[in-house]
């Protein structure tokens, strides 16, 4: 089965790119290929000019099923330590450093709990802290907020935006949420349904820092959101199986 | 039904069984010489326990079980991980395992006597063989059942293959491994009794048969009761250990 067809994308260092498309259009496949987790049948992925054949250092993939990506036998802080270990941080220094990353995501009080004792939003914060602990330059986010409640989603979006700007990260976010893409990204890449093709590229010129409330009232935000929404809804395949 | 209610029903079932046994023996419905009443049996069992007479046979049976069980667990988990992680190792051993697994392990005792003699070596070997297969099969299944998201997580954090097995696959497969070890524990106890009856010289299994042969029926039942108690305690201990080892299983 062909999931992707002729998708070409160039992400600049420090850029926040959102890949937007309907569910099942192959967005996740694209992201996994970019992460070196899945080989592409054709084409290539380059990071800093080097071809990617396996998961590169300095790049972390954050799973949609964050609850499944955390190790249930490790406490929260030990989950974060997993990333430090990969970086070769000495055993004695790991806990202290891991606690710092937990503080960044606001979970310093939960270090010795276990992931399954936390709410979905908190589990995602643990996954984010663990990703940060790897000190990546590139973060690939696969619909990271799709499984949490609406309020938590807003909080996590703000958190990721804050981390992105403070740590000068390059972020590629895959989402089917137009609102989320417009709110977070510098640039939005729209994919069509299977096999996915790039149908549109839009720069997002909304000023930063962005605010969960006021940005969403910005005329630029509303106009872009309108355009993209119209595009998504008019596309055949989106509402397959039933009249609108 | 409430927990208390359920417990009351269970207790009354047990009490009813004991009452029936007592009545059958006391009224002469069954030959009391062959089926001593539970009161007599319990008293005899308690005497054996309280006097410390229980310790040597218990120690013998337990060390036999421990040796065979530990050996089987190490071998079963080791080969299970190898078979689960490597397609070629799986291909190499799978037909062999499928061929040997259905043999009732008790049937292997006579040939083992030929090669290993009648003694401890044979007893440990038969327990090891019996306990080995459930651990092996469940370990392989546990490894195959590890969520791919966990494996990809290890990959994105660039863990080596060896460390991934140790730090991700082994703990993720632990619930299944423990399921296998639970089956093995029950099987191990059966084989301890069998081995001791055929080749033992002092364990609890040996004593049950020995008391029957010397017609000390009360003592036979007393040791039988102690064996049952041992099985119960081991099973409960395993439960506690399991809940502690994999607390996330319930979630």
Walkthrough of the structure:
The complex is a heterodimer of chains A (244) and B (251). By secondary structure, chain A is of the alpha/beta class. Chain A has helices spanning 27-34, 66-69, 76-86, 91-104, 120-133, 150-166, 178-184, 219-234; strands at residues 16-20, 46-47, 50-51, 59-62, 138-142, 170-175, 187-191, 198-203. In chain A, the strands form 2 sheets. Chain A has a 6-stranded mixed beta sheet, sandwiched between helices. A two-stranded antiparallel sheet of chain A has the order 2-3. With 251 residues, chain B is an all-alpha fold. Chain B has a domain at 58-86 and 117-251: MetI-like (MetI-like fold), CATH 1.10.3720. Chain B is 80% helix and 0% strand. In chain B, helix 3 packs across helix 4 and helix 8 (161-199) runs antiparallel to helix 10 (217-245). Chain B is globular, with a radius of gyration of 22 Å. The two termini of chain B are 24 Å apart. The A-B interface holds A 32, 35, 37, 54-55, 57, 59-61, 63, 65, 68-69, 71-73, 82-83, 86, 114, 116, 134 and B 147, 149-150, 152-153, 155-159, 167-168, 171-172, 174, 246-248, 251.
Tell me the span between the first and last alpha carbons of chain B. Answer: 24 Å
Helical content of chain B, roughly? over 70%
Instruction: Write down how many β-strands of chain B occur, each being a DSSP E stretch of 2 or more residues.
Output: 0
Radius of gyration of chain A: 18 Å
Could you list the spans of chain B in which at least 5 consecutive residues all have pLDDT below 50? Answer: none
CATH architecture of the domain at 58-86 and 117-251 in chain B: Orthogonal Bundle
Number of strands of chain A: 8
CATH topology of the domain at 58-86 and 117-251 in chain B: MetI-like fold
Indicate the structural class of chain A: alpha/beta
| Mean pLDDT over the full residue set of chain A | 88
Structural class of chain B: mainly alpha
Q: What share of the residues of chain B does DSSP label as strand, in percent?
A: under 5%
Largest sheet of chain B: none
Give the termini separation of chain A.
28 Å
């Amino acid at each position: 089965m062909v999931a992707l067809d002729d998708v070409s994308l160039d992400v600049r260092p420090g850029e926040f790119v959102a890949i937007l498309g309907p569910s099942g259009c192959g967005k996740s496949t694209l992201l996994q290929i970019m992460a070196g987790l899945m080989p592409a049948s054709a084409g290539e992925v380059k990071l800093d000019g080097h071809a990617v054949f396996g998961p590169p250092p300095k790049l972390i993939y954050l799973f949609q099923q964050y609850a499944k990506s955390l190790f249930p036998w490790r406490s929260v802080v030990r989950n974060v330590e997993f990333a430090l270990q990969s970086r070769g941080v000495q055993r004695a220094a790991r806990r202290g450093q891991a606690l710092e990353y937990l503080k960044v995501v606001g979970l310093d009080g939960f270090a010795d709990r276990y992931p399954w004792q936390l709410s979905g939003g908190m589990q995602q914060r643990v996954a984010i802290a663990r990703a940060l602990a790897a000190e990546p330059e590139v973060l690939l986010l696969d619909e990271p907020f799709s499984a949490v409640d609406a309020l938590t989603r807003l909080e996590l979006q703000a958190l990721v935006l804050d981390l992105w700007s403070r740590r000068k990260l390059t972020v590629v976010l895959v989402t089917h949420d137009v609102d989320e893409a417009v709110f977070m990204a510098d640039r939005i890449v729209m994919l069509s349904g299977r096999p996915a093709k790039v149908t549109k590229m839009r720069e997002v010129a909304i000023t930063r820092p962005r605010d969960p409330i006021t940005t969403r009232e910005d005329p630029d935000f509303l106009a872009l959101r309108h355009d993209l929404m119209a595009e998504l809804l008019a596309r055949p395949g989106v509402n397959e199986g039933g009249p609108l | 039904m409430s927990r208390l209610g359920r417990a009351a029903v269970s207790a009354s079932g047990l009490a009813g069984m004991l009452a029936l046994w007592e009545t059958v023996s006391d009224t002469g419905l069954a030959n009391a010489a062959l089926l001593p009443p539970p009161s007599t049996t319990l008293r005899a069992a308690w005497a054996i326990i309280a006097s410390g007479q229980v310790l040597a046979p218990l120690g013998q049976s337990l060390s036999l079980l421990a040796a065979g069980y530990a050996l089987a667990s190490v071998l079963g988990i080791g080969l299970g991980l190898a078979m689960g992680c490597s397609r070629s190792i799986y291909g190499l051993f799978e037909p062999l395992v499928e061929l040997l697994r259905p043999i009732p392990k008790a049937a292997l005792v006579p040939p083992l006597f030929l090669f290993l003699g009648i003694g401890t070596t044979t007893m440990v070997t038969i327990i090891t063989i019996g306990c080995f297969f459930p651990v092996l099969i469940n370990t392989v299944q546990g490894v195959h059942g590890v969520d791919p998201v966990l494996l990809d997580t290890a990959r994105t954090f660039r863990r080596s293959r060896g460390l991934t097995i140790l730090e991700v696959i082994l703990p993720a497969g632990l619930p299944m491994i423990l399921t296998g070890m639970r089956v093995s524990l029950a099987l191990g106890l059966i084989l301890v009794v069998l081995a001791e009856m055929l080749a033992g010289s002092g364990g609890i299994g040996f004593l049950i048969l020995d008391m029957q042969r010397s017609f000390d029926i009360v003592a036979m039942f007393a040791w039988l009761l102690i064996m049952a108690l041992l099985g119960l305690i081991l099973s409960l201990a395993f439960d506690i250990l399991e809940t502690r080892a994999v607390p996330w299983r319930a979630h």
